[in-house]
Amino acid sequence: ELGMASLEVGEDTTVKIQAAFPGTTAPDCDICVMTSNSKVTCDFELRINSGESVSYNFSCSNPEAVFTQTVEKNIVCSTDSCPTKAVELQPSGLPSLNTTFIWNITTDTNDGLGLSFSTPLLRQLKPSETCQDSVTYGISSLSTEAVNIGNFCGKGSVSRVTTQGGARLTLQAPWNIQLNDSGFSIEKLTRIKTLCVIEVSLNPHSPVFLSSPNYPLGFPDDELMTWKFLVPPTYSASILFLNYSHPDCIKDEAQVEYYLPNFDANPRVMRLVDRQPAGIPGNFDLLLRNCEADKQSSQSLSLHFKIELHHNETIGSTVERYAVDLRSMKGINVRIAQKTRSVDEMSPSCLICLEPKDCVPHLTLNSENVYEIYFRCDKLADLVMTANIDIACTNVSSCSFTNFSSDLPKSVFHLPLELEGFTWNLSPPPQTSVELQFNRRKLQQVPPGQKCNGPIYYDISSTLEGGETSVLGMLCPGGSIEKIKVKSNVTIVLKTSDSANGSESLDLDLAVSFIPYIRENYIFTVSPEAETSTNLWTPDWETGLLPNMFISWDIQVPPEQVAMLTFLNKTKPSCKSLFSRISLKEQTAEAEELNNRDDEPLPMPQHFHHSFWVNISNCESDPEDQSMRVLFSVIMSTANSADLLYIIISAVAACLLLLSIIVCIICIKKRRKERRQTPIGIYNDSAMNRVTVQHGLFHKGRQDNESHIYAVIDDTMIYGLATEPKEPTIAEVDVYRPFEGRIGDSPPVTPPVYFRKKDSDEDFPMVHNELYTFLTHNKEVPKSNGQTNVPLLEETEKESSD
Known about the structure:
Structural class: mainly beta
Radius of gyration: 55 Å
Distance between the termini: 170 Å
CATH superfamily of the domain at 1-201: Spermadhesin, CUB domain
């Protein structure tokens, strides 16, 4: 057994050691106590009451894993006696276990009780948050009912908590941390008339997060509390409500009250939804007041907020005031705010002030008012400005809206701030459309991913009848688009670039009108300058044209100008019904319309001497499938230069055509020459059988005549009719040619032959088995003299005369 330890408990103190997890099977470890008769008894629980002393030990070597202890002390703080020094941790000699100290401090119900924390100051915990070192303070009020004021850790900014009628303070410490003192002292105070007062010494280096008592469950009904903030010199404080809930009030209203320096005793009363003050230069109080709430409602009051400091030197010593006059602007609101930051970041570097004691990190200026503002700021680049103008009309008879100038109010645009966006929301009456006109600073479309070179640009979109949003994209001045008619609601966002300056950016040259209803989703009026090229493409370029959209371009062609339209690219949609279509038509009475469907190739480049229409309609398609995109260009030139260009193009085309014809002729001749190579003779008995057999054609006998022997038989002689219907054949050497006509024509007519009667019964000299024998004679045959031009009749008569 281990040696015994002694523990003596003082007055009004109770110590209880018990199992850490009651009701579960504990390991083999008990706490053993020496009784008065020197006997040892062991159990899993020990209670030591006020004024008692015991000797004890544990039956295991790791009791901290099995047992916890609670030390509870009651302190009465009355008029006659109230300890004013730091509360000690008693009794001494406690075992090293996870320990909870509880101080129940009571006082008269009409008195206040102050709990002061010197080292360290406390930091209020958010719900479910724990302390890094596991040393946690808990403070509750005991006036009428137990109200949890909050849980706290060290290393914070809360220096004192004052309650009415008493308090309960707990301190939880792990077994392995040795605490030397409680870290707080108590003090009797006068009546505070509130549930509690929390004093906060603000730290310039970090924001402070605070919550209302019982957060997030709900602040007590018809109750109030106060935070007192101590602001160090040369600093100003700003408050931001991060989260809050409203009760269902039966009487009065939940609100906050600010007691600001130099405001005498008159508080500044605000609702939770209001913009809270900022830039408060000295100590101030914040009071939270609840109403009489409906007991049956589940809604209750709760508040979680952040307070932070700003150094006055950083915020600036030289202040310039700016007048903002919005009296002539209806439906406008201007918001000035910090650039996007996390709510848990350090304090903003700039404040916007309406008066010295009313500075906020963000400010909204509404229409029909006049403001005078100034900035307490080190870098104005940390602020951005946005503006919105809502222009809506529900009844066309009561709304006349033509050529409304959308120039920005000079008092707004002259503020030394970056304009993040100026938005016009245009909502026309039913059966009415919107027209945007740019007379001097015509627009051009900018491809996605590229930037404008000028100081300003527009992002334009519209809302279709089905609720879809169609995006025109980025448009910059310096182009050819002078009008855009939109079928339904339009949103125009003006943005500025880094190169923007006040005078140039104010000249928007944008006029807005409500016009009679149009059936197209968009109508663009385009007026290209002479000798320029303009690229145009369909809306929603990145995602593709929405189904069933109809777009028109009115291309203006001045006199003595010619426009060449060229389609550069087209993405074919996957149509469920009908077709997408491109149609072109010159704006003259005799002009014909050129139509092109999505299953046809893009139209060839077209020349127009008059203004013309380009119409594109999309079909019904699935959003997941490929969508329609069309890109085309318009090149504007003078008539002479256009004619010259046309002549050059025609001449080049003619030369190319002539060259192709020459190449074809050469190829054909080469092919025919190859086909005319000397072929091997082929026997065809039908060719000779058509000739009537005549005796006495040759003056020589069969044996002496070589006319029946052929070096080669030309196919053109035998198959001339089939192989060479039109071209003449040049006679070859050693080829028998019985006539002078065109080879390949109809067979020659046999010349008349005069037969002479002979006494001899000599057989016909052509023997059948030798007539069709080619170069197969066994003996040498004399060569022919090659004369084949003697007519047969003359040769016969000469032989007869001999």
